[in-house]
Amino acid sequence: MDTQTSLPPPATEGAGPHTRSLVAPLPETPPGSPALIGRDPELRALQDFLREAAARGAARVVRGHAGSGKSALLEATVRSATGAGMRVLRCAGTRGGAPTRLSGLLQILWPALRNPGRSMAPGRLEALEMLLVDDAPAPGGLSRLSFAVLSLLESVSAVRPLLMTVDDWDALDEPSRDVLSFVGRRTQGHPMGLLMTSRPHRTHEAALTGLPETLLGPLTAARSTELLAARRPGLDAQAVREVLATSAGNPLALLELPARAEDSAPHAPASTDRLASALAPGAAHLPRGTRDLLLAAALHPAGDLPLLLSAASRIGGVEVAFAALEPAEREGLVESDGMRLVFSHPATPGAVVHAVSRPRLRAAHTALAAVLERDSVRMLWHLSQSAEGHHPELARRLEEAHDRVLGQFEAPMAVLLLRRAAELHPVPRDRGRCALRAAQLAHALGQDRVASTMARQALRHPLGPLGTLCAKAVARTGEPGGLPPAGPGAWPAPAGPAEQEDALELARIMAPSLAHGERAGALLDFLDTMPDRAGDPRLLHAMATADPVGRAATVLAGVSAVRQFTDVPARDLERLGEAALLAGDPLRALDVYRLAERRHHFHDLPDRLPRVLVGQGLAHLAMGDRGQGGHALRRCAVLAEEHGQDHHAAAARLLVDLVQALRSGVTARRGSERDVEAARRSVRSIDAVLAVGTACARIEGGDFGTGLASLSGLLADPGTRAVALFALVPLAEAAAAEDASAEVLTTLDRLESDLGAECAPVLAVRIAVARAVLADDRDAENLFAKAFAMDLSRLPFLQAPLRLAQGQWMRRGRRYADSRAVLRQAAATFTLMGAEARAARITAELRASGERPENGTADTPGPAAVHSLLTAQELRIAELAGRGLSNREIGEQLGLSPRTIGAYLYRIFPRLGVTARAQLAQVLTTSSA
């Protein structure tokens, strides 16, 4: 209707402030509701908003990206408002098209026009209705319309508190956006609230400037995992990791992303109808060149913009220019810095290509292969995705390329190449070979679902005898009793390099289930049939797993024989580190694990770090360094939760609790059975580690009898013996305190006799220190001399108890001055290692030897001499340590490494005659007084 509608001036009478309480208490939204997991702070903020709106008026904008949960929060608020007796008016924007002018206002105001509540002038209602329905222009333009809408809403709220909700404000028509933002700034003084949700937008946001906001960020890793467990139970571990990585904390993506099915060519990122409509609602309406550019970018996210433009031009046969990027940027799908194109969310590529046909996907892969470097890995990958049927030449090139990819530390890509090669090979034997190799690599990467699928596929084709056994073992991964029927004694000897590869993979897979007993011996005999592969990390790891004590020297010699670690793949470094740790050399293990960590950092593989960090934490614990061990394990827990690796996270949590118990001498609380079960997938010997650690914590706390009994039993059990050997010195300390030295000395004799030449060097040092700790006064001097003659330069965890025992022996011999000097060194080392529970016992020993740190003695400098004994740097470090800062925190302030700070404190403690950091503060404070 082409008419003008006249609006009377806004009424002003009776428009004074009006407050009204809610007619009923606000019902609480159940915290932890599955749809709103991780949004408790936002729910509380919206509850507060409702109370404020009902009392004196309020407005709020909930801003977040698509799928962040804005609509779910809005619905929860509407339920609370309705339950409290508020009247609710609502509207929602429409994406993927052009909304009709004033359609948003018509949605939200139509119920109020039919039932306005307090009487309004009939002419005003009719004029407003005609304007909204017929879009008739009004005198005064949008300003008069805004005041008319505000007057109507004030009238409605005068009868009952009012909540107005606007979902997707940024998708409304422009006049509706402007009027509603006008109303939002004028709710004060009336019992009404305006709640709007909006996505971040480059041009629309100015209209909302100044209104209170609730920002919805991504869910934390822990909350994302909780949401998956609540709403999608039954996902396997690999699917959980994939969904967590792609969803990046987006709740809708967490709920909608499909668990990746077994890839079939042509490859495309996964998505669903609902997710595509949320993340890329306008993608289908973009210009053809823009859609081709987005398709190329989704299939090859690592490509730079010129390369993607070239590929897009080939897809459609028409040149695509740089301007094609602008529509996608306006839609918020991508951002670009001129050279790189980045999607707004990791799930957006799947949303963009969700409706693309298979022929067009193949055309895109063909175009990408044509513009990439010839014979490069990515070029071959895209070429393989464009191929149909069998293609033996391309299959051969893919199989050759997988070796190059492994050399570039991209094992997941190697799995993909081998899987596709198995599909393209026409000869069954070739298909079986590639499928088996893909299964073996996937198993090593923890991709259990892919590994099992490819192993079953391999079993459908001809394989060698060891290959068949290996495929059966992988195919049964995760199944109860998932072992090949034949034990190692029945395995045939490998003939040729290919059979040796299958033999090593079979040993790697089977070793954890064959550890200890007769089958372990049979596995070791089988490994001995491959002397030319004696240095292979898989063989060393399998040997250490099967018999970590009996083959310790052989394993450590093999690890030490590796000279060029730069040429060793990161996964093999992890195997070598674990082999060294199992064989009893935590120092060597720590060095190798650190190399692996640097390698993962260099190749930007943060998801591989938790496995390395849990190994580092165990190595530090085995060396008695509770501070560094706790730091590594806490890092592991954070990273593992971020990447959905619940088994590493559970192991780290249990071990962090154990570290605290060892530091304080208090028994660690027992973790939940669920955590322990998950942790076993990270650290197979976690039960033994926790049992040995708990016994050591009892000894640290002075409960020598219980600790001695526990460690003795663990040392006698073949299943826990390897871990208990790390605690030989605490065992000796407990035996000495309980007057049970003879029994433990008999155990040490038997241990040395059993091991013979296979006794690991570090274990030999532990035995020597344990003998010195147990020595009677007649033999003590010789045994201490023998222990100190060994190389203890990197073994402070053995130096400290050795010096403590020596100091006690000197005190008993009335060599008080010598005793005090040795005991101070022991105290300093224990403090640096985080053995806080020992402080009281060592202080008692020092006092028994004549130490009086509070008054000063001839051997302990008085407070006035502190500044003359320390350099400026040492004094600064002592002050920071006295405040309770850790070595790492002090190092960060002074630009030094934690190890350097530890070396400084090692020198400072004996000079000041202190045994704990807390005493540093007292000495320095007294000195400055």
Question: What is this entry, summarized?
Answer:
Helix content is 60%, strand content 4%. By secondary structure, the chain is mainly alpha-helical. The relative contact order is 0.04.
Question: Sheet with the most strands?
Answer: 5 strands, parallel
Overall body shape: globular
Spatial order of strands in the largest sheet: 2-3-4-1-5
What is the share of helical residues? 55-70%
The class by helix and strand makeup works out as mainly alpha
Q: Work out the oligomeric state of the chains in this entry.
A: single chain
Mind telling me the C-alpha Rg?
A: 36 Å
How would you describe the overall organization of this protein?
A hairpin with a 4-residue loop joins strand 6 and strand 7. The chain is 60% helix and 4% strand. By secondary structure, the chain is mostly helical. The model is unreliable at 1-27, 29-34 and 854-864 (pLDDT under 50). The strands form two sheets. A five-stranded parallel β-sheet has the order 2-3-4-1-5, with helices on both faces. Strands 6-7 form a two-stranded antiparallel ribbon. Helix 27 (586-602) runs antiparallel to helix 28 and helix 44 (887-894) crosses helix 45 (898-912). The chain is globular, with a radius of gyration of 36 Å. It has 46 helices and seven strands.
